[in-house]
């Protein structure tokens, strides 16, 4: 796994390029030996994902019935269960004649993205390029007669963006022998899959890595039962044809160049190594005309910043409609969030993970050497931003130019123990998120202890807790088909179990405490400040995660406290505890 630490020369090169023309990716190889593709991944930190295939023609509907969630899975047995012959026949009048590669590239640049990854063949088996290996493709099986992958690759190369291809290497629902696809009479599943692998998968990956110029990434997906030998063969083929390209972890068998997290997942704590988070502008990845849950510019910016702050790269998906058009709603929200990215390139490009290792009560932070860029989601209304855990001297604090503030502004600040109090305007200069640049002394360090400021709520996730007598585990589940949710929870509790957090409190006083959990029946909680105070309460559990009030607890002194949560009675088997939230009561 390659590290994300930059050489000084490479970091300066990247930051300079991004600050002057943040939409450009006209970069040379760095002095630390990384390829151009690695630079775009490591330092660009933001990419466009596109799901486009034959499924796009159906737009979430089959024979008058609507299917919600992942529209690209509509053929699957878990959705419409469309027979192979009927599904393949849909290609005869699939004509996305409005697909405009240059317009897509222009949108990616406006959004601040550095490369594009598009589905060249999804699980349905339909290739969006002119393939000699199988005529079930956009050029041979439709009236369009175009190679959309070539059009997009050419447009990306001309604009200086990277281009990568998604390829479903195991699942193929229409190719005989493909994973979850039709069987081949007289052959075992293993024999049939090898035939598919040799005659379709390998030849098409070879085409993708030889016909379209320099490739950013081959983004394999759902390895299923793929053997280590087959995963290695795919990786070796990419290495041979595209030595600088990256291979996603979903090639299987721990052979990728970087890890892709679960769909729509943002980790709570910093993650080492090279990794990416992925999310989508609607609920599903392929376009559905019944999906109106568009992500706001605020959501996009916060997810992008939080992913970069945890040490990752972010890839955000759009899905063209049946005619190949990018929906107006997707264009508007990407352009609006892109304006923010272009205003604050330092917060994204070449940025390193937050020195705190987790989110802060009011937002998040990234680092460039001695400079910390604090991205404030929840602006303090009393004119004071409290920054916890800084041990050492602060050289300067600047509020960067925002949507309503044309020039950067020096800010006054003062040290109060390990807290820095920064005087800020009462009104946030940017309606999406404002950015403050903090320059530290080279010898300064950061204490990663969770903190509670007097003027904003602090969430204490179980992922950052110590557990005694119970386990802390990651949970994932779907709401709609393909709509993933993630929580880290404490479970397996009993009356003697304890979950505790160390918390640096800025000011003594009364604090409102809320608890986030799910379960069954009644739950008895006890929260104790090991300095002495405690509160107890009984709550009714629900089937969804949500915060419920436990009441006020009195914290008598500033400094580090240990808050300990016990569940003294409950249906322990059903109980899952996610976090507590604490906020000072203004009296």
General description of the model:
With 587 residues, the protein is of the alpha/beta class. It has three domains: 8-335, TIM Barrel; 363-448, Golgi alpha-mannosidase II (Immunoglobulin-like), CATH 2.60.40.1180; 458-584, Galactose-binding domain-like (Jelly Rolls, Sandwich), CATH 2.60.120. Helices cover 20% and strands 30% of the residues. The protein has ten helices and 32 strands. Strands 7-6-5-4-1-10-9-8 form an eight-stranded parallel beta sheet. Strands 21, 23, 26, 28, 29 and 31 form a six-stranded mixed beta sheet that branches. A five-stranded antiparallel beta sheet has the order 11-12-19-15-16, covered by helices on one side. Helix 8 links the parallel strand 6 and strand 7. Helix 5 (101-111) crosses helix 6, helix 7 (189-208) packs parallel to helix 8 (228-241) and helix 9 packs across helix 10 (328-343). The longest helix is centred in the middle third of the chain and has 20 residues, at 189-208. Mean pLDDT is 94; it is low at 1-29.
Annotation field: number of helices: 10
Helix content: 10-25%
Shape type: globular
Question: How large, in whole angstroms, is the Cα Rg?
Answer: 26 Å
Total tally of structural domains = 3
Overall mean pLDDT stands at: 94
How is the CATH topology of the largest domain named?
A: TIM Barrel
């Amino acid at each position: 796994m390659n590290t994300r630490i930059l050489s000084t020369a490479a970091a300066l090169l990247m930051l300079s390029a991004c600050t002057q023309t943040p939409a450009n990716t006209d970069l040379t190889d760095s002095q630390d030996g990384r390829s151009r593709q690695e630079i775009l991944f490591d330092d660009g930190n933001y990419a466009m994902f596109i799901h486009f295939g034959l499924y796009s023609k159906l737009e979430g509907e089959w024979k008058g019935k609507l299917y919600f969630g992942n529209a690209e899975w509509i053929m699957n047995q878990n959705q419409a269960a469309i027979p192979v012959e009927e599904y393949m026949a849909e290609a005869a009048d699939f004509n996305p004649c409005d697909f405009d590669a240059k317009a897509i590239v222009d949108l990616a640049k406006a959004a601040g993205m550095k490369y594009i990854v598009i589905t060249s063949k999804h699980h349905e088996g339909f290739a969006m390029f002119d393939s000699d290996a199988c005529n079930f493709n956009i050029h041979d099986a439709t009236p369009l007669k175009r190679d959309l992958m070539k059009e997009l690759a050419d447009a990306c190369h001309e604009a200086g963006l990277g281009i990568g291809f998604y390829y479903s290497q195991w699942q193929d629902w229409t190719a005989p022998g493909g994973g979850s696809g039709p069987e081949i009479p007289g052959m075992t599943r293993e024999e049939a899959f090898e035939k598919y692998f040799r005659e379709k998968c390998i030849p098409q990956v070879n085409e993708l890595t030889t016909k379209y110029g320099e490739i950013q990434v081959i983004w394999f997906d759902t390895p299923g039962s793929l053997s280590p030998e087959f995963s290695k063969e795919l990786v070796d083929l990419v290495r041979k044809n595209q030595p600088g390209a990256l291979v996603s972890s979903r090639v299987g068998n721990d052979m990728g160049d970087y890890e892709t997290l679960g769909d729509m997942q943002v980790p709570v704590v910093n993650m080492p190594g090279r990794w990416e988070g992925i999310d989508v502008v609607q609920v599903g990845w392929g376009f559905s005309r019944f999906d109106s849950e568009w992500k706001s510019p605020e959501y996009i910016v916060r997810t992008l910043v939080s992913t970069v702050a945890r040490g990752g790269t972010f890839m955000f998906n759009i899905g063209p409609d049946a005619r190949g058009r990018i929906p107006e709603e997707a264009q508007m929200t990407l352009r609006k969030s892109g304006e923010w990215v272009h205003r604050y390139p330092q917060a994204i490009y070449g940025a390193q993970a937050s020195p705190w290792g987790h989110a802060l009560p009011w937002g998040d932070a990234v680092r460039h050497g001695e400079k910390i860029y604090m991205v404030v989601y929840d602006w303090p209304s009393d004119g004071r931003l409290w920054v916890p855990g800084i041990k050492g001297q602060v050289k300067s604090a600047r509020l960067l130019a925002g949507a309503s503030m044309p020039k950067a502004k020096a800010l006054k600040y003062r040290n109060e123990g390990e807290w820095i109090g920064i005087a800020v305007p009462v009104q946030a200069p940017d309606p999406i998120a404002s950015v403050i640049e903090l320059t530290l002394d080279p010898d300064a360090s950061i204490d990663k202890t969770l903190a509670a400021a007097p003027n904003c709520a602090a969430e204490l996730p179980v992922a950052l807790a110590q557990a005694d007598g119970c386990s802390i585990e990651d949970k994932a589940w779907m709401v709609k088909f393909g709509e993933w949710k993630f929580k880290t929870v404490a479970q397996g509790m009993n009356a003697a179990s304890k979950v505790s957090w160390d918390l640096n409190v800025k000011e003594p006083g009364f604090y409102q405490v809320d608890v986030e959990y799910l379960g069954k029946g009644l739950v008895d909680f006890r929260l104790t400040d090991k300095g002495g105070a405690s509160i107890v309460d009984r709550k009714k559990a629900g089937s969804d995660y949500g915060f419920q009030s436990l009441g006020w607890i009195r914290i008598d002194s500033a400094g580090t406290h240990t808050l300990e949560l016990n569940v003294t009675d409950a249906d322990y088997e059903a109980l899952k505890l996610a976090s507590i939230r604490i906020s000072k009561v203004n009296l």
